Amino acid sequence: MSHAIRSLPVRKGRWPLQTGTVGAVLLLTIALPCLVSLPWALEHYDAQDYGQINMAPGSQFWLGSDGLGRSLTWRCLLGGAISLGIGISAALISVGIGVAWGTISGYAGGRVDALMMRVVDVLFGLPYILLVVLLDLALSPIVEHLAKLVMTDTLAIHLSQLLTLLIAIGGVSWLTLARVIRGQVLSLREQPFIEAARACGV
């Protein structure tokens, strides 16, 4: 009986690989058109044609037009590019803050570690949306003022809104990552090679 059980072939699961492949294909299907068409979307997204108001989807307007005769196709593509840009940028900001915070906290230890983790605990106790809104309100005037120093007022207003949003989202999304990185640093501090390095005076 035991020999029969040992001789049974091991089935390797394929679902994780298939799920990842499907997810990557869907992401590329959405991201590539948005990013490739970005220069044309910026040019045509606000073009109005009052003779083509509320048109149904067709050869001229693939997704139809709105009440001002603007192409919904270009507006959707531009919105997708902006959403991807904000999401990726916010994720990079979140990773940077989380890795730095967790590394410093775990490496320093003692009171520094306790203080930094108490800050994380306090932020965890606040609603996520509330933190984003508060950061957005606090940073919006500063970012807009800095943007107006290097560009026109209209462009500065639009760009400052995007920058403020991605900074606000990235600035409150690092808490869980900071805890994970801190745990990894604490575990590495107790590894034998670290103890050996300390014994050698490194």
Q: Secondary-structure blueprint of this entry?
A:
Blueprint (H helix, E strand, L loop, with lengths): L1 H6 L7 H22 L1 H7 L27 H37 L1 H15 L3 H21 L4 H18 L4 H15 L2 H8 L3
Description:
The chain is mainly alpha-helical and 202 residues long. It has one domain. It contains 9 helices and no strands. Helix 4 packs across helix 7 (153-170) and helix 4 (72-108) packs parallel to helix 8 (175-189). It starts with a helix and ends with a helix. The mean pLDDT is 83.
Properties at a glance:
mainly alpha
Assembly classification: single chain
Total helical elements? 9
> Can you tell me the number of structural domains?
1
In percent, how helical is the residue content? over 70%
Order of helices and strands: HHHHHHHHH
Biggest sheet features: none
Structural category is mainly alpha
Principal-axes shape call: elongated
Percentage of β-strand residues: under 5%
Poorly predicted regions are none
